[in-house]
Design a protein that fits this description.
Layout (H helix, E strand, L loop, with lengths): L1 H21 L9 H6 L4 E7 L8 E3 L13 E5 L12 H11 L3 E7 H4 L4 H5 L2 H17 L7 E6 L1 H12 L6 E5 L23 E4 L15 E5 L16 H20 L7 E2 L3 H5 L25 H5 L6 E5 L10 E9 L5 E11 L4 E13 L4 E8 L6 E9 L9 E11 L8 E9 L4 E3 L2 E2 L6
Parallel strand pairs: 3-4, 3-5, 5-6, 6-7, 7-8, 8-10
Antiparallel strand pairs: 1-2, 1-4, 9-10, 11-14, 11-16, 12-13, 12-15, 15-18, 16-17, 17-19
Helix pairs in contact: 6-7
């Protein structure tokens, strides 16, 4: 009986060992207890290709079964992990990147090191992570890879880690995409101590939390500022929402990048000096990029590389608005209003469009109170989260925003609406219209007599 028991233990042990060897390596998952005690740095590289999309291979000193150094290699570097949990977006980014291109996806797992309640401790390990990646890339170069084919996607602290790697190669890496680069402990630092446009042949950045965990100033050849880079639509506005209040804006950069991979719509951004100028309709010309349109956010931003890197200095800020959920696209329109009120009016317009099928899209222009003066043209920028093609009805509501006091009228001599996102569509007009304050007025628009210029 004892021998049978020993044999059973032996067989069970062998089976567990076999399963362990055959099991797919996974991103390191840690608990809050690890964050409380802190973790020593240990970097693990997980390789995914089209040949092993569902089961990672750990890259080590031994030869890889799947790594093909003649293909593009995309390193994905996460950031600070205060609770130790794996990033929720890992599997999505692997699946989407491999669906677009036959590449090597290398997840840089430095969770042992990034997991700590003390942010400064994770910050201090960023250089060591970069040095580890330099050693791995050196081996790939020795096996026939080229620096042109190395692409780093860094999130938060990972953005600066990517920059440090780029510095070690004197900016000859192919590309760095930085998703809301970390701000704390990096603000005000010289170029050598943070991400910089000189760290790669092309550096694109998405800033989604510049008033919190992110970095405010431009760090790349093109820096995208969704919704001005601050409060993102759909994110909690109060601390009572728990952890989402702190991380939702910061994480939005990742989800915007993922959305660009799905190509359900192109998120167009407009080069501008400030978000205020963009909202005031001063920055919607794309002539400098002809024959290309204005740049799109995310993975395909590299198509504008030649235009952006040849600027002096090679830095472009681009602004745009998004919806509160995927695919995040806003379809931009100009509203051109000429009024005939004798006295100046200040207020906002709400516009609702309805197409032939009864679908509606609504937009309130509320960045700043617009100024309407007699016989003067006021041009407003607005956007809708749906792209309605054949608009059958339109409605306008005028509001001064006052709760008490008299109600005002806005007398419209001419109103034109035309699409910036789809400039080939005909502009829609309405003439001689009186809006009573806070009263929605509906009408059927007519094609404009002339195209706006």
């Amino acid at each position: 009986m004892l021998r049978l028991h020993i044999i059973f233990i032996f067989i069970f042990t062998c089976r567990v060992g076999a399963d362990t060897e055959e099991a797919c390596p996974a991103f390191t998952g840690l608990s809050i207890s690890s964050a409380l005690t802190g973790t020593d740095l240990k970097v693990k590289l997980l390789l995914y290709t089209r040949q092993n999309q569902h089961c990672a291979e750990t890259l080590s000193t031994v030869a890889s079964n799947y790594l093909n150094v003649t293909k593009k290699s995309i390193f994905i570097v996460h950031g600070y992990r205060p609770t130790g949990s794996p990033p929720v977006w890992i599997q999505d980014i692997i699946k989407l990147l491999l669906s677009i291109e036959d590449v090597n996806i290398i997840i840089v797992d430095w969770n042992r090191g990034a997991t700590t309640l003390i942010y400064h401790n994770a910050f201090r390990k960023t250089r060591k992570v970069a040095e580890f990646l330099k050693e791995r890339i050196d081996r790939m170069l020795a096996e026939g890879a080229s620096l042109d084919s190395i692409y780093l996607i860094g999130i938060s602290l990972g953005a600066h880690i990517s920059g440090f790697v780029g510095q070690m190669y004197n900016g000859r890496l192919g590309r760095i995409t930085a998703l809301d680069p970390a701000g704390p402990l990096f603000r005000g630092k010289p170029h050598s101590e943070r991400l910089d446009p000189s760290d790669a042949q092309f550096v694109d950045v998405i800033h989604s939390d510049i008033d919190g965990l992110g970095y405010r100033e431009a760090l790349g050849h093109i820096d995208f500022y969704p919704n001005g880079g601050t409060d993102q639509p759909g994110c909690p506005q109060t601390i009572f929402s728990g952890s989402q209040y702190f991380k939702c804006d910061h994480q939005r950069s990742v989800f915007l990048f993922l959305s660009s991979l799905k190509k359900s719509c192109n998120i167009t951004a407009y080069p501008c000096d400030s978000y205020r100028d963009y909202k005031n309709s001063k920055c919607t010309s794309c002539n400098i990029f002809q024959p290309l349109p204005c740049p799109v956010l995310g993975y395909y931003a590299y198509e504008w590389k030649s235009h952006l890197t040849q600027k002096d200095p090679p830095v472009t800020k681009a602004f745009f608005d998004t919806a509160d959920k995927e695919p995040f696209c806003i379809y931009h329109y100009f509203v051109d209003v000429i009024t005939w009120n004798q006295n100046m009016r200040r207020g906002s317009l709400t516009i609702k469009l309805t197409d032939q099928a009864g679908n509606t899209a609504k937009s309130r222009i509320n960045h700043e109170a617009a100024v309407f003066q007699q016989h003067r043209q006021t041009i407003l920028l607005t956007g809708f989260d749906q792209d309605l093609d054949e608009v059958q009805r339109m409605s306008l509501t005028f509001s001064t925003g006052t709760v008490v006091g008299p109600k005002y009228k806005l007398r419209i001599l001419q109103m034109r609406l035309w699409s910036i996102s789809n400039p080939e569509r005909p502009a829609l007009c309405r003439y001689d219209l009186v809006l009573m304050e806070n009263v929605e007025i509906g009408f059927k628009p007519i094609p404009c007599e002339s195209r706006p210029t």
